[in-house]
Amino acid sequence: MTETCNEGIITDAKKRYSAGVLKYRQMGYWQPDYEIKETDTLCLFRITPQDGVDPVEAAAAVAGESSTATWTVVWTDRLTACDSYRAKAYKVEPVPGRPGEYFAWVAYDLILFEEGSIANMTASLIGNVFSFKPLKAARLEDIRIPVAYVKTFKGPPTGLVVERERLDKFGRPLLGATTKPKLGLSGRNYGRVVYEGLKGGLDFMKDDENINSQPFMHWRDRFLYVMDAVNKASAATGEVKGSYLNITAGTMEEMYRRADFAKELGSVVVMVDLVIGWTAIQSMAEWCRANDVIMHMHRAGHGTYTRQKNHGVSFRVIAKWLRLAGCDHLHTGTAVGKLEGDPMTVQGYYNVCRDSYTRTDLQRGLFFDQDWADLKKVMPVASGGIHAGQMHQLIDLFGDDVVLQFGGGTIGHPQGIQAGAVANRVALESMVKARNEGRNILEEGPSILKKAAEGCSPLKAALDTWGEISFNYAPTDTSDYAVSPTVA
Ligand SMILES: O=C(COP(=O)(O)O)[C@H](O)[C@H](O)COP(=O)(O)O
Ligand SMILES: [Mg+2]
Q1: Which of 179, 239, 311, 488 has the fewest CB atoms found within 10 Å of its own CB?
Q2: Residue 406 CA: which ligand 1 atom is closest?
Q3: Angle at the Cα of 480 (from 367 to 330), degrees rounded to 5?
Q4: pLDDT number for residue 340
């Protein structure tokens, strides 16, 4: 598929710039012999051209519409350094095992993006091009962001190393729980749930994505009761505790108001939902940086555009943008829980959050090397339908630098919320100890848990209630190179 010459480009200026419509490849958006620069942003798109549309022309169109082009020749190109500003599609390959789909690699010059602005970068890369008629579908699969551009972002306000220092917690995953029911509790009842969870042994409790300031619980009531619970649980256990106060609101002014109040009450953490948008995320990261507060990011809404293989934006790209934009915690999936997530693909997201340098790893969906240029690391959050009986799988999949969050798997415990938290903490500590002793936790996990449960009735009850619960459905978003990688 890849061609070795610039076939198609019209170089004669008179012909190139006479008014009319040319093919994108004739305009210079297809350059198979293009030499990638270290300062280029590289994108891998998965495109499904309409029947009869040449994949190379479709790739050139993607490069054109996501950079400088419009549908017709414009003489004003000649007032610019258009040869370098034009994005270049430089390689097209059929996707293995997916007839009609092609991978198209496109390079973008550094000058095309404003420094430190995900809003600006995304307005180019996913601006018009996903609605383009010659394509049935398009997906941004992966991105390589050049160090020169990475250095224009401040990244996570706290980062996972400093977070551990502030919390004084090392050598094990952190534990959390989402307060349930998501909606409807009064402030006082809500605070009670938070206290029970933290007192039982969790490090964090968490507001859910859709709890903001509804009539049943004004945000100030929630913040007051939650912080009362946090302080009492810290005093009772001698540990630093936190509860992610969701400051998501309808305006920036209101979000700042809520963040200020959270800080005033002594919260170590605030939370926002991905749906607030890139600019709001970058602004809240600035606020968190200035106020020494951890920023928890719930990826609410992402499944609308990340899940389907043929259209949208892969979550690995969203994770890369979020690390640049700045968040300290990021929901990245569980693989074993109730929500979408192929294990290898999910591990790829974790690598994006925690690596200093991410290596190409096709089986985990990573198509490029990514140098993070010492940008701080994001703490991934595994959350969604998990329970103590899966502890060995979770630690085996994700290691120590992760928040394991059991919402229903704490609050639904038959002996109460505090018992649910105890079960999770005991399961976690037994599994970490077994791993540190060199045991194969993936194989021995169930027996390690059973043994630990002999001395812990809450863990026994958790295993009896949920031990057999699993969510075995075929994942939607898997690597196309899971069996034998063919692209270098
Ligand atoms: O409320 C929950 C989980 O509750 P529970 O633990 O009771 O299932 C979170 O919103 C999900 O983690 C979001 O999904 P993701 O983390 O994949 O973004
Ligand atoms: Mg939720």
Answers
A1: 488
A2: 6
A3: 60
A4: 86
**Tokens representing residue 202 in the block:** 């969790």
- C-beta of residue 32 within 8 angstroms of C-beta of residue 3: yes
As given in the structure block, the two tokens for residue 180 are 């349930």
Q: Is 384 in the pocket of ligand 1 (CB under 6 A)?
A: yes
Atom of ligand 1 nearest to the CA of 340: 17
Give me ligand 2 centre to Cα 184, in Å: 14
Amino acid code (one letter) for 433: K
Backbone phi and psi for residue 442, each to the nearest 5 degrees, phi listed first: -65, -40
385 lines ligand 1 (CB under 6 A): yes
Please report the pLDDT score of residue 6 as a whole number.
60
User: Which residues, given as ranges, of the chain have pLDDT below 50?
Assistant: 1-5, 484-488
What pLDDT score was predicted for residue 2? Answer: 45
Both tokens of residue 428? 């976690």
Give me the pLDDT at residue 7, please. Answer: 64
Sequence-distant (6+) residues with CB within 8 A of 183 are 208, 210, 211, 214, 216
Contact 157 CB / ligand 1 (< 6 Å): no
DSSP letter string, 299-365 = -TTTHHHHSSSSSEE-HHHHHHHHHHH--SEEE---SSSSS---HHHHHHHHHHHH-SEEPPBGGGT
**Strand pairing class (329-331; 379-383):** parallel
Complex ipTM, two decimals? 0.96
What are residue 358's DSSP bridge partners?
Answer: 370
Q: How many residues make up the chain in this entry?
A: 488
Among protein residues, the one with the nearest Cα to ligand 1's atom 6 is 407
CA 298 to centroid of ligand 2, rounded, Å:
8
Binding annotation? 128, 178, 182, 206, 208-209, 299, 331, 383
Catalytic residues: 180, 298
Q: Is the CB of 159 under 6 A from ligand 1?
A: no
* Strand pairing report for 41-49 and 88-94: unpaired
Cβ(482) – ligand 1 distance below 6 Å? no
Determine the Cα angle at 256 with ends 253 and 259, to 5°: 155
Q: pTM for this one?
A: 0.96
